[in-house]
Amino acid sequence: xxxxxxxxxxxxxxxxxxxxxxxxxxxxxxxxxxxxxxxxxxxxxxxxxxxxxxxxxxxxxxxxxxxxxxxxxxxxxxxxxxxxxxxxxxxxxxxxxxxxxxxxxxxxxxxxxxxxxxxxxxxxxxxxxxxxxxxxxxxxxxxxxxxxxxxxxxxxxxxxxxxxxxxxxxxxxxxxxxxxxxxxxxxxxxxxxxxxxxxxxxxxxxxxxxxxxxxxxxxxxxxxxxxxxxxxxxxxxxxxxxxxxxxxxxxxxxxxx
Length: 257
Fold this sequence. Notes:
By secondary structure, the protein is mainly alpha-helical.
């Protein structure tokens, strides 16, 4: 059965506390100053320098990332390391026990043996494992979000391409229509400019038509006059001959008598 009291929850979720920073800095300085005399030959002294460098680097990392780490994660990580080196480096264990004692006196984070014990049970393991798991989950979600964003961007690009093609076609249609309207306006303007000349030509054509009609009437009337004249002349001539003939006969008869 899972159970977390308020203190455990606070230690898990809160960043590095001021008490931890102060006491852990004292622990690192104490081990750096007094750890060397506990070794008896060069190899162990060399080992002390390596451990001392490790603790100083860890302290600097914690100071620069106080919002990322928390007290329990650092303590649980170093507990196993210090206990494993207890036989070869007992002074480190002494310094660590002193640090844990002072830290617990200020925070009451740990329960001594013989008192009521509270054991946290859960699948998360150490808080650092929980952080790593959450970071992995966050990374997976970020990757999924990135993939979805890529798909959305690809869809948006395709949509924009289609809109661009439609816009090009519409633009070509408008250009053609605009050219047609320009030609129509130009033709109407030309017609308007030529309208006086057209009216003048119409008037001239009308006058010419009237003239042709008049000439046609005159031409059609002239042959009738000539026909009448040609017919009347022979009649007159014929009558004159007959008269002459008659006169001749009369004259002859008179003479004979």
